[in-house]
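Take a record.
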Amino acid sequence: MKILIVRSWGKTAFELGGYCKNAFAENGHDADLFTYNDGRISWRFPFLVNIERTFVGKALIKKISDFRPQLILVIKGDEIPLELIRGIRDKFKIPVADYWIDDPGLIDVSQKISPAYDYFFTNDPDAVQVHKESGCPRVGFLSFGCLPDLHKKIQLSQEEYEMYGSDICFAGTVTEGRIKVLEVLSDFNLKVWAPRLVYSLKEKYRIEKNKIPSSSPLYSKFTDRSVWNEELVKVYNASKIVLNIHSPQTIPIMRDFEVTGCGAFLISDYARSLETMFKPTEEIICYKNIAELKELVTFYLSHPQEREEIARKGYLRAHRNHTYAKRMEELISFIEKEKT
C-alpha cells in the first residue's frame, strides 16, 4: 500500500511521523512524508499568514497528486486547516486518517478535529466514544510504541557514561505536578534533562512558563537542555533508573515504551491501562505515592541484580508487543476491517 504521512511542524509530531514511516516500510508498505508547516515565515511576518497557508496547502495537494497514495495518515494535525482536509477527501476520494496523540488532555481540541477525517485514532481508549459522539464514525485506539532500530541497548564509552549517566534521570517537559515529585528526589544523584522551566496549562490552553530559581534544591539537577533521538537513547542506557511521571496525562505516554525499548529500568506512577501493556513488579515498577517512590528508588539502587532483571523483561515485552511496526499493523487492520 502507498501511504503518505503528513506530520505537523512540532518536535513530537515530526519525530513520530518518521517512526511511522519506518514502521510502514518494515511492514512492506511504500510510505512517504510531507511536513506541514504554514508558519515558517508568517510567525515573523503575520500579515503573510494567508499567503503562506495557501502556498503550503497547494504543495500538499501537489504531493498527493504526484505520489498518488492509497491512504493519507496525518500525525496530530491540529495546525492543519480542516477545510484543507475536507478538500483533499473530496478531490482525491482516498481515505484520510488522523493519529492523535494528546488525549485526554486536549480532548476539547481533538473532538473538533475528528469529524473531518474518515478514520481517527486516539491514544486514549476512553476517548473513542467521545469522538464517535462528536461525529467521526470510525474511531480506534492506538497507543505509542518503540522503534527497535533506535530504542535499543547500546554500548557507551566511559566518557559517555560520565556525560549522560546518573542514578536517576527524568527527561521531558517539567510541569507543576512533576516538579513536586522531582523535589522529593533532590537528595539523590538525579539528572533532569530539561530546560530550567516549569510549564503550567492555563485557560484556553495557554502555556505559562516560570524559571526555576537558583535557590531551588533542583536547580543544579537540571541540565538546562532537552535531549532527543540518539542522545536520549544514550541517557536511558547510561541511567540506573529512569523515572516516568504521567501527570498531567493519565494514560501511557511515549516514555513508557521508549525507556523499556532501550532496556532501561523504568519506575513510573500508575496510569490507566498501563498494567495491560506491562506487568508491574515484573517488567516495570510502579509507585502509588511519593513516599513509596522514595522507598523504591532506595531499594533498587542497592539491588542491581533485581533492577537489571526487571529491565530485561521490560525490554523483551517492548520489543515483542509494543513496536511501531505492531502499531501500524493495528492501524491498517482497523481500516481494512472497517471497510468490510
About this structure: DSSP finds twelve helices and 13 strands in the chain.
